[in-house]
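Protein: Rhodanese domain protein
Species: Chloroherpeton thalassium
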Amino acid sequence: MLSGTTLAVFFQRVESRCCFISGVDSRDVVFYLKKMDIHFNRKKNMLNFLLKHLRSLELVEQFVENAHPACTSLEHHTLFELMQSSALETLRIFDVRAFQEFEISHLEQAISVPPETEVSHFFETFENELSGKKLVFYCSVGLRSAEFIGKVQNKCLNAGALSVHNLKGGIFRWYNAGLPVVSANGKTDELHPYNSFWELLVEKRAQ
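Structure follows.
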């Protein structure tokens, strides 16, 4: 791991928008971000700038897990295996993206729950469907869904949910692994990139 002093200089350059220092491991970056005594939004701004250079979904995954330690991650291949088995009946999958993102494509069986959904409205709609279910939330990369889980997790468990998970790397990781996404018209290779910046993390499929 790089020394704290080296990383301190690195982040000073990040904040001043200077040249990127090569050879920095994403694990070092996340470790130091976690330790820095600064506002969370400032950390996110640093992460955004870094991604322009690293183009690393792994960095985002690590950042999300460190920023939301109470949120349990679920690997994409584990969810896919569950969806192909009899366990599908016990799953409830929630897509925490804007509805226009959901319309382009989503995981099969996913239910759209836009990130601005009020907690009260979520439970008015789904409280009776949570008992005995494994809940999986996802968004583009896992950040919006982790933030939403932070609002509803305890109440979901109190309502009888067996578990609450955040899909690690979100639909971007799922898509990059070649796993299927669907729209109202069936399977598709389309994916909403969120914006031109985050699109850098998506591995395009041949049309």
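Remarks: The domain at 72-201 is CATH 3.40.250.10 (Oxidized Rhodanese; domain 1).
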